[in-house]
TrEMBL record:
<feature type="domain" description="Major facilitator superfamily (MFS) profile">
    <location>
        <begin position="10"/>
        <end position="399"/>
    </location>
</feature>
<dbReference type="GO" id="GO:0012505">
    <property type="term" value="C:endomembrane system"/>
</dbReference>
<feature type="transmembrane region" description="Helical">
    <location>
        <begin position="295"/>
        <end position="317"/>
    </location>
</feature>
<dbReference type="GO" id="GO:0016020">
    <property type="term" value="C:membrane"/>
</dbReference>
<dbReference type="InterPro" id="IPR020846">
    <property type="entry name" value="MFS_dom"/>
</dbReference>
<keyword id="KW-0472">Membrane</keyword>
<dbReference type="InterPro" id="IPR036259">
    <property type="entry name" value="MFS_trans_sf"/>
</dbReference>
<feature type="transmembrane region" description="Helical">
    <location>
        <begin position="76"/>
        <end position="98"/>
    </location>
</feature>
<feature type="transmembrane region" description="Helical">
    <location>
        <begin position="272"/>
        <end position="289"/>
    </location>
</feature>
<dbReference type="GO" id="GO:0022857">
    <property type="term" value="F:transmembrane transporter activity"/>
</dbReference>
<feature type="transmembrane region" description="Helical">
    <location>
        <begin position="104"/>
        <end position="125"/>
    </location>
</feature>
<feature type="transmembrane region" description="Helical">
    <location>
        <begin position="137"/>
        <end position="156"/>
    </location>
</feature>
<dbReference type="InterPro" id="IPR051788">
    <property type="entry name" value="MFS_Transporter"/>
</dbReference>
<protein>
    <submittedName>
        <fullName>Fucose permease</fullName>
    </submittedName>
</protein>
<feature type="transmembrane region" description="Helical">
    <location>
        <begin position="240"/>
        <end position="260"/>
    </location>
</feature>
<dbReference type="Pfam" id="PF07690">
    <property type="entry name" value="MFS_1"/>
</dbReference>
<keyword id="KW-1133">Transmembrane helix</keyword>
Length: 417
């Protein structure tokens, strides 16, 4: 008897795979300094190890995107499953810089493969609710960060267990999502099922509207992930725990994505992006001046802004430029992760320069670090300000245009916009 496609089961399994992906980010953030002590690694070496997770993520999306329609989602998810298992095991038994580098790279490739397959999968099984369901799916990235962060705090800070034991926790949900995925039947991607040729998909991916969205993705991802990856340094001296602010931001992001449906209905994807840019800019400006528990209020504004960025960018492309197919979604995701890998060292150099300048002007260490974090956030705030201008244009142009219905051989009016 032929298996039936079960959309809900596929969706829930995709969410579990994304939770594993997010947990790797949170757990690595907790234990990377422990690697420095155990393996006598410099800050530069630790940065190279952490950075390879983003490069691996980008590599998997850029390579996996064109392959989705050729080999199918199942094989890409098999690569993700194997990558997670091997990456965790190699990391647990690492004995040097290079084995830690390899383990982190494998996990990065696995994480990128999850996004490469699951974004088009969700867009296909919920073709009439793409932005809403992509937001629901992506709520589990911040959700997984919260889960991973709390597990890390409990195992390392409370129980004083080893970082190897913490890494081992990832094997449990990874094995579960692997078993669940490979027992299910997968649909064709929406692009393939609709009869749009591979050539037309490639052509759509070099259209002006798509290129505009890719450029915007560089800024949205940098605003969100660049800030949160550096939050420990940026908020080091504001008087509250930076890691708790990080958990708070991710909690709000998860809730926001869960209830994205009514926002989509009222604003449409272009309106959501403009709304997000405004709140992200306001949140960063406020964070750059906040003290004590006021930082949580500022972080809440920032979280409301960035929570819709990533999934709504994917939703907009899937709804308004659907001929780009799985490749389009993965170019967007790859561009987002690539931008984070690029901006992190820039943020580090801005922070170092601001701190050095403050020390030269007579500030003590604490005051210099506080000022450096604030000035760096002010610099990063330029990115959502640029996005406000870009998304205002997008909102004016698309507020009255319907989503594009993908039919065989049909030309997309919006791809010519």
């Amino acid at each position: 008897m032929e298996k039936l496609i079960q959309p809900k089961k596929l969706f829930y399994t995709s969410c579990l795979a994304l939770i594993v992906t997010a947990m790797t980010f949170a757990i690595r953030a907790k234990i990377v300094t422990m690697w420095g002590s155990d393996f006598q690694l410099s800050g530069e070496q630790l940065g190279l190890i952490a950075g390879t997770a983003f490069w691996g993520f980008t590599l998997a999306q850029i390579i996996g995107g064109p392959l989705i329609d050729l080999v199918g989602m199942r094989k890409i998810l098999m690569l993700a499953f194997i990558g997670h298992l091997l990456g965790v095991v190699v990391t647990i038994f690492a004995a040097s810089f290079w084995t830690l580098f390899l383990g982190t790279l494998l996990i990065g490739i696995a994480n990128g493969s999850v996004e490469a397959a699951c974004n088009p999968l969700v867009a296909t099984i919920y073709s009439n609710q793409k932005t809403k369901m992509l937001n629901r799916f992506h709520m589990w990235f911040p959700g997984g960060n919260v889960i991973g962060g709390l597990i890390a705090y409990f195992m390392i800070d409370s129980l004083q267990l080893s970082w190897q034991a913490l890494m081992g926790v990832l094997l449990v949900p990874a094995i579960i999502y692997g078993v669940m995925f490979f027992s299910q039947k997968f649909p064709q991607t929406e692009r393939a099922a609709s009869g749009v040729s591979y050539k037309d998909m490639l052509k759509a991916c070099v259209g002006p509207l798509f290129i505009f969205m890719v450029l915007c993705m560089l800024l949205t991802a940098s605003t969100e992930l660049g800030t949160t990856q550096w939050i420990e340094a940026l908020l080091k001296q504001v008087g509250v725990s930076a890691i708790l602010v990080f958990v708070f931001i991710n909690f709000i992001m998860a809730i926001g994505r869960l209830f994205a449906g009514p926002v989509v209905h009222r604003l449409n994807p272009a309106g959501m992006l403009l709304f997000s840019a405004v709140f992200a800019a306001l949140g960063l400006f406020w964070l750059s001046r906040a003290n004590g528990y006021e930082a949580f209020a500022a972080a809440a504004v920032f979280a409301v802004g960035v929570c819709y960025f990533w999934p709504t960018m994917l939703g907009f492309v899937s709804e308004y430029i659907p001929q780009t197919g799985a490749l389009g979604l993965n170019i967007m995701g790859g561009a987002g992760m690539l931008s984070v890998a690029i901006i992190l060292p820039f943020m580090g150099s801005w922070y170092d320069a601001n701190k050095a300048e403050a020390l030269q002007q007579g500030a003590d260490q604490v005051a210099a670090e506080l000022l450096a974090g604030r000035e760096t956030m002010m610099t990063v705030a330029i990115l959502p300000v640029i996005l406000i201008v870009a998304f205002t244009f997008l909102f004016i142009k698309f507020r009255k245009k319907p989503k594009v219905a993908l039919t065989p051989g049909e030309e997309l009016e919006l791809s010519k916009a």
